[in-house]
Amino acid sequence: MTDPTRSKVLRASEIGSYEYCARGWWLSRVLGYPSAHQERMALGEEDHLHHGRAVVAAHRLEQLGYLLVFLGVSVGTLAVIWWLVTVLTG
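Above: the chain sequence. Below: its structure as tokens.
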């Protein structure tokens, strides 16, 4: 029942699973028995994907905000320079 292709790397969720029930973790990780909570796990995975997308969207909006601030400062600086040139030469 063991899967030789299974990773030897422990994930944080597996540590939490082990802390909750060492026997359940062993049955799942070593013997390969599926969890009895597949539906809840699928919902949790879906929630994590949704949250991940929200985090990516927030990061992109933050980057857009920085770009808009940079553009605003640049346009303001150019406007001041243009005004100074017209006042000093006019």
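The mean pLDDT is 89.
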